[in-house]
Amino acid sequence: MNRRLLLLAWLISANAACTSVPKGKSAVDDVTIRNASAVDSSDTQDKIATAETPKFLGLFRGVIYEYEVFDRFVLQRDLARIERFYRARGYYDAKARAGRVIQKNDNHVAVEIVVEEGKPVLVDDLQVYWPKDSNVPDDVRLHAYLAAKKLLRPEKPFDEDKYKQAQDDVKKEVTDAGYAFAIVTRNADVNITTHKAFVSFTVTPDQPSTFGEIKIEGLDPDGAGPQKPEIPEDIVRRTIAIKPGDKYSTAEIDSASAALTDLEVFASVKIVPQLSDPPPANHVVPLVVTLQPAKLRAVRIGGGVELDQLKTDVHGVLGWEDHNFLGNLRDLSISFKPGVVLYPTRLNNLVAPKNPLPEEKLQVTFKQPSFLEARTEGFIRPEFNVYPIIVPQTVPTVRCSNVVGSQCFEGDASAANQTVIGYLEPKVQVGLDRLFFRHLYVTLSQNEQFESPFAYIGTLDDRLKPILLSYPELKTVLDFTDSKLHPHKGIYIGNTIQIAGGGPFSREATFIGTANDVKIQPEVRGYVPVVSRRLTLAMRATAGFLFPQNWGDYIRHNLNDFANPNAAPISDTDVRDLEIDLFRGFLSGGPSENRGYPTRTIGLYTFVPFFNPSSVANQVKSGAACVDTTASGKAASDACRTPVGGMSLWEASAELRVLISGPLSEATFCDSSDVSPEIADIRLNHPHISCGVGARYDTPVGPIRLDIGYRIKGLQYPSGDPLEPSDQQIGLIFGQPVAISAGIGEAF
């Protein structure tokens, strides 16, 4: 009986999800605009009513979405809409006609529209006029002219939308300078015969103004009045940081709006200047700030699974946040992520887990708004983490009980686990955040990080010691992109500087840190619309430079010794270098760096004693000794090598993003990167190029992303480099040099 009910419920829900074409009508399966070269056809299709039926998940029509029904009269009106749209883009001679209506079957059609674009009207001249008696400074006049010219360039088509936007931009330049009651009028003389347009803007600036009274609305939680607002008004006023009598500026209004939004306690923020007509004699402009408070407290519960060529883990996510902790809009959030690594299960080694490795991440963040001054936020972020260090593996090691010299003669050696070390990591970050000029984000912090090693599996190398990393960090970001989640155009420039321990001033470990070094990593991203607004060319480049003072000699000069039986034994100092390098050295590879490689697998491959203990009992299945019996204790097999970080890094990526339908999009990408053991060494002959494709499905927190990257043979590194790995070491999937990565949010 229960099964029948379930089947009936399933049939009802499936039937409700499906739609049908109305009787006697035809559904539109496809709309194509031919000969559209100057104006993007997808933009044109957005302006007409005749539209193709959307596909659920980009695959199925008639599921969830209703069919779009074809109507000849609507199509005729659409042709007029297209011609009007073209005229707005500067193509006054454009003509549109229906090419064909193709009957695909009894109730499905495809529509073709042919466009004759004609010759565009071009901007011939541009002027910005000012009253003769105006005292507006020359720099304001120049900025107003450049704002108009940025959109209306000579010898470019006269676009009506850009024409209107240029008027707004000219006015904004003037009002930013204090002229609140400025009036800007526009005029365009279009000559259809010569296909030329003369464009002008006339500015009437009036007199400089000041801010007046600031009225705040929306803080009363029930609208009744007597109840005390949960969000205090004095904190809001301090964050706005505008006082009556200050020089008027729309830029300051925008900055105040951004600062209020950054408090994360308002669902919407609106600041409106009260501009009376005619202007008051004192030129004082009151402000009305309308706020809609958001939910101040939230609990988050979730989980996830990670599966790649390095590891498989299962984890939960527990979180709690309070955006008004102890009042005054102090922000407290707690995030706890318990999990377990299913070792040695991984994407290219799908076996049952034998040694579950527990891990956890605990982070508490406390933020104090208006710290020191109105627009600066202070924060403290303590963490406590426990995690394993998982390195690339090729074949499992075996334990040999019959050793002659350095060879294993045991025929059926039992499998043994590779040593897996982990770290207990208490750390804390204390710092300041500040937004400047609407686009510049600055974070200055002091970081204390303590790393205490232990063994998950095997025996901990007694040369591994706890280390303390102490460094101030300065992060700067100039963000001129149009969206944080879906950037389509603009540029992003960032830089990070860290000075660990004594930095360049000391070669000795001190009470302020085990490692002394300077670490710098600039980054630039660019986003360019390509032909269609559905296409975005995204590019990213970064370089990293590490300047160690009291460590790193082994990384720079002795890594090649792993294959030299006559080399000196690895010393305690060498082990210390390798351990510090785990946390300070550069590595590349992974879903946001080089997608043809698993995470942190582009590095310098060498023998690391605390991953492969110097014991003749560790052998590989092939019979080759993982460690020889010479005094050096160096690795004698390629299979024993693991990646360590380098002193220099570069990464470059290019990605073409294509919006397919609704929330579904696709990306084609090529990534490249390298890690060098030398200081300030950008090796372009080690490109590690990988290319691939990916799918994205949009969500409110960003697109869910799945990428597959392929390492192109012959475009990796010069043959014979002893510090480069084989594909077998990095990991193959179905015998191919590929990597699969998933995440939330674009790669960059």
Outline:
With 748 residues, the chain is mainly β. The protein contains ten helices and 34 strands. Helix 4 runs antiparallel to helix 5 (160-176).
Annotation keywords:
globular, 748 residues, 10 helices, mainly beta, 15% helix, 16-stranded antiparallel sheet, 3-stranded mixed sheet
Helix tally? Answer: 10
Task: Give the terminus-to-terminus CA distance.
Answer: 53 Å
Stretches with pLDDT under 50, minimum 5 residues = 5-16, 394-417, 614-636
Mean pLDDT: 84
Radius of gyration: 32 Å
Strand content: 35-45%
User: Percent range for helical residues?
Assistant: 10-25%
Counting DSSP E segments of at least 2 residues, the number of strands comes to: 34
Oligomer state equals single chain
Please give the order of strands in the largest beta sheet. Answer: 12-13-14-15-16-21-22-23-24-25-26-30-31-32-33-34
How is this fold's topology laid out?
Blueprint: H1 2-17, E1 27-34, H2 41-45, E2 55-56, E3 60-61, H3 72-88, E4 95-105, E5 108-116, E6 122-129, H4 138-151, H5 160-176, E7 183-191, E8 196-204, E9 210-217, H6 233-240, H7 250-262, E10 266-273, E11 284-293, E12 297-307, E13 312-322, E14 331-343, E15 355-368, E16 376-388, E17 397-399, E18 403-404, E19 407-408, E20 414-415, E21 420-436, E22 440-457, E23 467-479, E24 490-500, E25 517-530, E26 532-548, H8 553-557, H9 572-584, E27 604-606, E28 618-620, E29 642-644, E30 648-661, E31 664-676, E32 690-697, E33 704-711, H10 727-730, E34 738-744
Parallel strand pairs: 1-5, 6-8, 9-11
Antiparallel strand pairs: 2-3, 4-5, 7-8, 10-11, 12-13, 13-14, 14-15, 15-16, 16-21, 17-20, 17-28, 18-19, 21-22, 22-23, 23-24, 24-25, 25-26, 26-30, 27-29, 30-31, 31-32, 32-33, 33-34
